[in-house]
Amino acid sequence: MDRNSVTETLNDLIENCKDGEYGFQTCAEHAKSADLKQFFVRRARECASAAQELQSLVARFGGSPDTGGSATGAMHRGWVAVRGTLALNDDKAMLSECERGEDAALARYREALEEKLPPEVEQVVRRQYQGAQRNHDEVKRLRDTYAAQPA
To answer: Where are the domains of the chain?
Structure first.
């Protein structure tokens, strides 16, 4: 895989991380539960950290690191904000949207891992993918917990 392809793949994952960071920040702003707000803030920080790690790799490969999220991510955040407002900041609805966002994040990591990446890049991408999978499972667990609570 040439340097341009590597940096393109990494920049796609940076967009993914930034989408997650901004999405979790949006959810934190709309969540009712203090524990859930803290969870969303923590996840936003973790996404920001993952983006920084990928940005460093892009720079090491001579590319220009992406710094923002995608248009699709912006639409998703808008939907989270609208849905949160219309549902009176319903934590269950936001967790469902977070799970949908995490599904998309996992798909982007899987696509990246299907490419022939340099070993040091593949190692970082695989580790971040595993973290994204754990986060997805945690969001799903929280969603199920909140869904089981009486309205």
So the answer is: 3-148
Tens-place pLDDT, residues 65-79? 887 655 554 554 454
Q: What is the DSSP string of the chain?
A: --HHHHHHHHHHHHHHHHHHHHHHHHHHHH-S-HHHHHHHHHHHHHHHHHHHHHHHHHHHTT-----S--HHHHHHHHHHHHHHHHTTS-HHHHHHHHHHHHHHHHHHHHHHHTS---HHHHHHHHHHHHHHHHHHHHHHHHHHHHHHS--
Phi, psi of 140 (to 5 degrees): -60, -45
3-148: CATH homologous superfamily? Answer: Ferritin, core subunit, four-helix bundle (1.20.1260.10)
Distance CA 61, CA 2 (A): 10
Query: What's this model's pTM, rounded to 2 decimal places?
Result: 0.85
Three-class secondary structure assignment of 87-129: CCCCHHHHHHHHHHHHHHHHHHHHHHHCCCCCHHHHHHHHHHH
